[in-house]
Amino acid sequence: MQRLIELIARLILAIFKKPETEPEPVEPEPLVLPHPENAPDYTATMDNVDINTIISTWLAEYDVPNAHRPYWLNDCNIILSQKFTYPAATIAQTKTVYVRPEWCNPGVIAHEVCHIVWYELTETERIGYENALYDARQTDELVKLAWETKTYMQTNIVEAHADCYRYLGQYMPDSLKKYYPRLF
Ligand SMILES: [Zn+2]
Predict the structure, then answer these.
(1) Over the stretch 121-132, which tens digit does the pLDDT of each residue have?
(2) How confident is the model at residue 29 (pLDDT cuts 50, 70, 90)?
(3) How far, in Å, from the CA of 155 to the mean position of ligand 1?
């Protein structure tokens, strides 16, 4: 009987015994921008780039709602062009985006379309965005990361608006999304 009690006691102890080694603490994942920058492709030319494929990739990767896709595909002109020396340019009044072949990637298109969006915001909305972005820089880790590492954002509020979407896309805080009509 004594031995049986000892056996049971040992069993109970074994069940509640802590494992010999503590599990290794899990390192937190380093924070990364959801849409990292695409390097320019210097093999790209006016002839070998299919901009429609790149536009479709942007619409898919940034999860642009289907209801708004016809606007970007049909009402705006996003075209391949070498007419500017810089990577891309947007004439918001005519809803025209010019992208050089080597810079024709989803991130650049995402940035440029924001200039069309910005042009259509009211003055009150623009001020609202500036305030919301300032707040998000204190409270949202991704916004903070983009602001600190993608310093082109600090150029002015128009570029900040464009690059915030370019690098964060659908992962930006809800407080900013309302300033991106037709993108969310
Ligand atoms: Zn820009």
Answers:
(1) 999 999 999 999
(2) confident
(3) 10
Residue 25 Cα, ligand 1 centroid: separation in angstroms? 42
Give the count of beta carbons closer than 10 Å to the beta carbon of residue 91.
13
Direct distance between the N- and C-terminal alpha carbons of the chain, in angstroms, rounded to an integer: 73
**Residue 95 Cα, ligand 1 centroid: separation in angstroms?**
14
- Look-up of token digits 């310093």: 151
In a domain, 67, yes or no: yes
Domain count, the chain: 1
Cα dihedral 85/36/58/175 (nearest 10): -110
d(CA 46, CA 54): 13
Enter the pTM of the model.
0.85
91 C-alpha to ligand 1 centroid (Å) = 11
Contact 34, 167 (CB under 8 A): yes
* Domain extent at residue 156: 51-177
Residue 184 domain-assigned (yes or no): no
Coil, helix or strand for 77? Answer: strand
Three-state secondary structure call for residue 96: strand
Q: How far apart are CA 30 and CA 142, in angstroms?
A: 11
